[in-house]
Amino acid sequence: MSGPDDDNQLRQGEVAVALPPNADAGVFFIGTIHTPWRVRGECPKRGTLDGPLCSIVVDPRWQQALTDIAEHPRIQVLYWMHRARRDLVLQTPIRTGQTTGSFALRSPVRPNPIASSVVALVAIDGATLKVRGLDCLDGTPLIDLKPDRRPPG
Fold this sequence. Notes:
The protein has strands at about 15, 30-35, 55-60, 75-80, 90, 100, 115-125, 130, 140-145. It has a 6-stranded antiparallel β-barrel with strand order 2-3-8-7-4-9. It is mainly β. It has no helices and 9 strands.
């Protein structure tokens, strides 16, 4: 039985396609993100810099890559939305009810479920970063971290 939170059911107007048989490239997950959210419906649509405190745990082999990251009050976090379906080309968001192309949406449902958030770096303890501003599920794989050098505002 499916319900309104069943992310695998097509909504009216949605179109799914067959995925390619093989991937074109590989990605190394460099850590794991821990947030308060367990299901997609709990996640904020976009994180805010005053949102809940979340943890980014970097794999120990990559810990040296965190050198000097504390000099950046905001960082860009790239992550893999591992529980999102990847086959929709047209989606009908519940919020609008309007069928729209996947590339015209910020939905996690896309061929390559890569997300990006700019977060406030609150603290660092070894290979664990405490941040505010994420919008992903607990256990989300981390792809990369980059300093955000844009002026605040």
